[in-house]
Amino acid sequence: MPRRVLYVTHRVPWPPDRGDRIRTWNILKFLAARAEVDLLCLADEPASPECLSVLKRMTNRLAVVPHQGFHRYCSGLLSMICGGTITEGMFECRKAVDILKTWSASGGWDAALASSSGVAEYTSPEILGTRVRRWIDLIDVDSQKWHDYSRSAAWPKSWIYWLEGRRLRNVEKRLAQDCERLLVVSEAESRLFRQFCPTDHIKAVGNGVDTEYFSPGPPPAQSEKSCVFVGVMNYLPNVDAVSWFAKEVWPQVRQRHPEAIFRIVGKAPSLEVRRLASIEGIEVTGPVPDVRPWLYRASCAVTPLRIARGIQNKVLEAMACGRPVISSSAPLAGLSAEPGLHLLQADTPAEWVAAVCRVFEDRGLQQELGLAASAWVRMHHCWDACLEPFSDLLSAPVSQMISETEITA
């Protein structure tokens, strides 16, 4: 008899057009191929009929719960005022609780998995009415992300971010006690977690890449000298990255290569990002149906992230497409790729200018880095291999196996 699994996600996992969705979608596919999955997801934007059709084919029971609008932020603020976290408050949803209680009453689960600390509470015994094997996919150590935000923001935001980081860290410590396993996306995140919470419950489960979809394409035109950044462009770390690059690096690159173009590709560009289009040689595309043509067109993909947690899918996808990647050190902490062999690393403006111009001026280097990058991704980031640890969630725990053996005897 197949195992029954409850999967709760903080965002609808399809289409896989951003980092968290890419991970939750591939986890859902992995679990659905091996078990009966009930999926409850909070929807911060309307789910299309196509989306619902895709998810229904993958699941036993499906609930897509609308959860958007200004009230989410009010709930987060109220949670902070009452001594909780903004994160937990923003994901509170009475309708989701009611659905889970109804589901539980009509048939429970062997295991429950939640994506992120924000929706971890939905898998608690208090809501499910019973104890099941409970895993939380933190993805990143979010408390550290908030601490990183606090160091780069002005007061009073810096204080709010610091407070959220401190309170969320307490939530993460509590989850380490209450859950069978916590997951993060890299060994670097796992080591970071153990620094403030020594535990054997934390495990790294990396991200993969669909290497059939993201595969090497045609090289850019000989005359092309361009960089591309791909990401959701209202996300603070992405906004910070392209703004810093546009102001601190790009003018010097343009002095050496006046024809060069920097393209910022991705949905929901903030006002700050849209204003960058007024700088000579910078284009802001907004949402695109397929990022691959933009990657293939570029001389290199750049990821000048100063705030980064876990593994950046944008790095893996560009490498899988055979494009030279230039990255700051922060996104590389979770990867085993070797700077100088599989990609280039740069942190200071001078290092960035030198690396970008080096790629612009050396077509042989572009080809060498691209070939090495795509081969490395195929070897180290196949989704099925990355997600194999989830097989443990589908197996009976030792205590249950012993109990069943005694009954049989």
Class of the largest domain in CATH? Alpha Beta
Q: Can you tell me the overall shape?
A: globular
Question: Could you give the count of β-strands?
Answer: 13
Share of helical residues: 40-55%
Give unreliable regions as ranges.
398-409
| CATH homologous superfamily designation of the largest domain | Glycogen Phosphorylase B
Rg over C-alpha atoms, rounded to the nearest angstrom: 22 Å
**CATH architecture label of the largest domain:** 3-Layer(aba) Sandwich
- Biggest sheet strand order reads 3-2-1-4-5-6-7
Number of helices: 20
Q: By helix and strand content, what is the structural category?
A: alpha/beta
Mean pLDDT: 93
- CATH topology of the largest domain: the name is Rossmann fold
Summarize the structure.
This protein has 409 residues and is an alpha/beta fold. It is 47% helix and 15% strand.
